């Protein structure tokens, strides 16, 4: 089987595995599925959970699209007259309890073809990252430890590299702070002398397979903690920063909005209830301030 | 007095007039004032009201900034080595009651200088527009009638022109709908054969003076209407579209975020409580659907 078919099969299975596990943890809500087609070629399977016992809103979406490379992307990649295929799984989970972090993950594969249909370029990209509203250092360390383990199985230089890329990418520059406490981010993983596309496939699927192990234990540990209105307000204010990142800075979101992507699948990443208060500042010495300190100064977790 | 000094004095007075009137209508909350300075020159007076009886969140801000034209603006205006002065009043008011529309207005003046300090360009810009959550045609007509009256006092070609520009500018292209029911939008109002800067000053201040007459009667008429949770949810979902416009499309907001503007003054425009539900669709034949119909097909109100 080609890498392309193998990876597409993989993300279909992974979507099933992840949505089943999240439903099992939630106990109340189920994912609703929407199949959609892209007029220019391909489509997707969007699965959204809302108003669960644990998960207030979340989406675990796959898509596989192909056709002529859109003009905006031709300019971006510096090519003309190319065709493409892209598939990937994207997920964002917004839990109800402010002590449970939001999580985002994405694993994707891209192929570009010349007019004769020959592959002229191909690469993997993706990653996973955590956005807590309250900082439990043990949770951050756990998440990063699992990320590192998945990386180390392939190359011990990967984790420090992709951890750094994650901190750089999810930087809310207009706030001078990180979106969350990071994880992994990688892109343009291409075949090179020492590494085949099959090697990258093995790496990216290893990260994909690590997702539930990285996230679920944190959910289980924090989902039943008591919280009050003030904790909830803080969560909603911080979710505002999540919206700001996704709408102002996130390349994937902006690309989708500008190329006529399926809006509801793209914007399922936005949190369900959000607040913007003017000039809100956490109280000195509070747990809220402790989080902001770490977001302003990303640190090494393992 | 120069146009620049006259207009700066004007927006200071207008800020007082508008905030006093809004406080009088609200009866409960007062504006809190923040003075801020721009390290590179100038500063502003931000006034924010929160948790009022009528106004859930709103800002009426003035600023007057000057210095070297930032690099991003040099490129935008196609000049090098220029200095600038810009002052303006910006307001966004988010009422609590879903039957009272959100309003936005802005009136601004810009001067550009060569290195010898001579004015090489100068213009006015601004406008005012209404974003209802429920459509009362009488309110839309009232708002546009006042806009038209202010325009007609100067030139009967202004209203149709600036009404159209407003519909074009506040277009949420990724949703294929308008942000609201429009009003006026104008920019680069420069001296020309038939019209001096003083003429434009007279026009822009006429629009500024019309603001309270355009908005307040609508607030008075709708602020005590009964509403339920479902009306409130709809308002919060529609506020999500407001956020999307401001963060994805609004040139002023993006310019501020990219040029190190005062974040809290820029983002005071974002609504206090906002929702994103996956693929929310108004019920067929409902009042909610009636609004969306008009947003998708902007119409003539006078």
What this model shows, in words?
The structure is a homodimer of 302-residue chains. With 302 residues, chain A is an alpha+beta fold. The first copy, chain A, has a single domain, classed as 3-Layer(aba) Sandwich (oxygen-dependent coproporphyrinogen oxidase), CATH 3.40.1500. In chain A, strand 1 and strand 2 form a beta hairpin. In chain A, helix 1 (3-26) runs parallel beside helix 5 (197-222) and helix 3 packs antiparallel against helix 5 (197-222). Chain A has a 7-stranded antiparallel β-sheet. In chain A, strands 7-8 form a two-stranded antiparallel sheet. The model of chain A has no long low-confidence stretch (mean pLDDT 96). Chain A has 9 helices and 10 strands. The A-B interface holds A 34, 48, 50, 57, 59, 174-175, 236, 240, 243-244, 247-248, 254, 257-258, 263-264, 267-268, 270-279 and B 34, 48, 50, 57, 59, 174-175, 236, 240, 243-244, 247-248, 254, 257-258, 263-264, 267-268, 270-279. Strand 10 (273-275) of chain A pairs antiparallel with strand 10 (273-275) of chain B, so a sheet runs across the interface.
Largest sheet of chain A: 7 strands, antiparallel
Rg calculated over all Cα atoms of chain A: 19 Å
Oligomeric state, counting identical vs distinct chains? homodimer
- The DSSP helix count of chain A reads 9
Secondary-structure element order of chain A, N to C: HEEEHEEEHHEEEHHHHEH
Return the domain count of chain A: 1
Through-space gap between termini of chain A: 37 Å
Structural class of chain A: alpha+beta
CATH superfamily of chain A: Coproporphyrinogen III oxidase, aerobic
Shape of chain A: globular
The greatest interface between two protein chains, and residues involved on each side, is: A-B, 30 and 30 residues
Mean pLDDT of chain A: 96
Helix content of chain A: 40-55%
Q: Name the CATH architecture of chain A.
A: 3-Layer(aba) Sandwich
Q: Strand order, biggest sheet of chain A?
A: 1-2-3-4-5-6-9
What fraction of residues of chain A sit in β-strands?
25-35%
For this structure, the CATH topology of chain A is oxygen-dependent coproporphyrinogen oxidase
Count of β-strands of chain A: 10
């Amino acid at each position: 089987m080609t890498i392309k078919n193998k990876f597409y099969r993989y993300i279909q299975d992974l979507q099933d595995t992840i949505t089943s596990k999240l439903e099992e943890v939630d106990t109340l809500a189920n994912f609703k599925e929407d199949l959609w087609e892209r007029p220019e070629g391909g489509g997707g399977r969007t699965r959204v959970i809302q108003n669960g016992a644990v998960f207030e809103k979340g989406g675990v979406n796959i898509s596989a699209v192909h056709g002529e490379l859109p003009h905006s992307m031709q300019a971006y990649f510096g090519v003309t007259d190319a065709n493409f295929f892209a598939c990937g799984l994207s997920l964002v989970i917004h839990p109800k309890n402010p002590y449970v972090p939001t999580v985002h993950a994405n694993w994707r594969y891209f192929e570009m073809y010349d007019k004769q249909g020959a592959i002229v370029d191909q690469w993997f990209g993706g990653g996973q990252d955590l956005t807590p509203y309250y900082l439990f250092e043990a949770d951050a360390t756990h998440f990063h430890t699992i990320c590192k383990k998945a990386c180390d199985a392939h190359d011990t230089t990967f984790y420090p590299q992709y951890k750094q890329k994650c901190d750089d990418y999810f930087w809310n520059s207009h706030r001078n702070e990180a979106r969350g406490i990071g994880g992994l981010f990688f892109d343009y993983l291409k075949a090179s002398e020492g590494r085949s596309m099959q090697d990258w496939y093995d790496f990216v699927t290893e990260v994909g397979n690590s997702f539930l192990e990285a996230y679920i234990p944190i959910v289980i540990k924090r989902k039943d903690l008591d919280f009050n209105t003030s904790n909830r307000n803080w969560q909603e204010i911080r979710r505002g920063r999540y919206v700001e990142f996704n709408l102002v800075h996130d390349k994937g979101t902006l690309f989708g909005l500008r190329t006529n992507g399926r809006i509801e699948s793209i914007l399922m990443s936005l949190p369900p209830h959000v607040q913007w208060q003017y000039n809100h500042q956490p109280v000195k010495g509070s747990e809220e301030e402790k989080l902001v300190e770490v977001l302003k100064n990303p640190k090494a977790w393992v």
